[in-house]
Amino acid sequence: MSAAPLLALDDLDAGYGQSQVLFGVRLAIAAGETATLLGRNGAGKTTTVRAILGLVPASRGQLRFDGRRVDGWPTERIARLGIALVPEGRQIFPNLSVRENLLAFAANRAGAAAPWTLARVQALFPRLAERAGHMGHQLSGGEQQMLAIGRALMTNPRLLILDEVTEGLSPLVREEIWACLHRLRAEGQAALVIDKYVERLLGLADRHTVIEKGRVVWEGSSEALRAAPEVWHRHVGV
User: Which of 29, 119, 131, 217 sits most deeply, having the most CB atoms within 10 A of its CB?
Assistant: First the structure.
């Protein structure tokens, strides 16, 4: 990993009011790297994502993006640095068309040489082109997930965070999403992926961080995690 990761959480504590959820969490993602955050429901994965985005304040430790300390920054300012979230539950705008959902987020603040545009997103997900005039609420769950990913890509993020993007999808649509994630990795898109399908993540990600009860209990490469199935059976399996 690069000596200066794109994203770095260092000994981070965070929670809600008097309830502490994260305890000394550490996580690092290099530019162009695909990483995962693994753990059972309630382990602290979503709180970690919310802390990265400034939605949950850090009470201790540091959060750095591209070498810049950003803990304590408002969410909008952090997002403008180039972090985009595909949230659990999709959260698309139901009363906007597919085209409007995508164009509402179009930006290229980092000046990408080959930015994500409406045409590129529609080429990635042809169904979004077919349904460009449909309202968000008229889409199937799988189409809404494609739209949520496309919407995040339209911001041309330096780091893409995907929270349970294959959850509740049909096997066919799930395969489309996995194919999309592999393509993004091949194109050098840095990503943090949260998902329960560890076997699929082993073939996608460079590094994995496993948390339980808000604490990091294991971290390492896909090769190391593949060689230690007891780790993910103990901390990730149902």
Answer: 29
Q: What is d(CA 209, CA 48) in angstroms, rounded to the nearest whole number?
A: 12
- pLDDT digits 0-9 by tens, 101-156: 999 989 888 778 889 999 999 999 999 999 999 999 999 999 999 999 999 999 99
Domain that holds residue 73: 1-81+198-238
* Residue 191 included in any domain: no
Say if residues 5 and 30 touch (Cβ distance below 8 Å).
Answer: yes
Into how many domains does the chain fold? Answer: 1
Express as a percent the part of the chain with pLDDT over 90: 86
User: What pLDDT score was predicted for residue 25?
Assistant: 97
SS3 per-residue string spanning the chain? CCCCCCEEEEEEEEEECCEEEEEEEEEEECCCCEEEEECCCCCCHHHHHHHHCCCCCEEEEEEEECCEECCCCCHHHHHHCCEEEECCCCCCCCCCEHHHHHHCCCCCCCCCCCCCCHHHHHHHCHHHHHCCCCEHHHCCHHHHHHHHHHHHHCCCCCEEEEECCCCCCCHHHHHHHHHHHHHHHHCCCEEEEECCCHHHHHCCCCEEEEEECCEEEEEEEHHHHHCCHHHHHHHCCC
CATH number, domain at 36?
A: 3.40.50.300
pTM score, whole prediction: 0.94
**pLDDT tens digits, residue range 198-209?**
999 999 999 999
Report if residue 227 sits inside a domain: yes
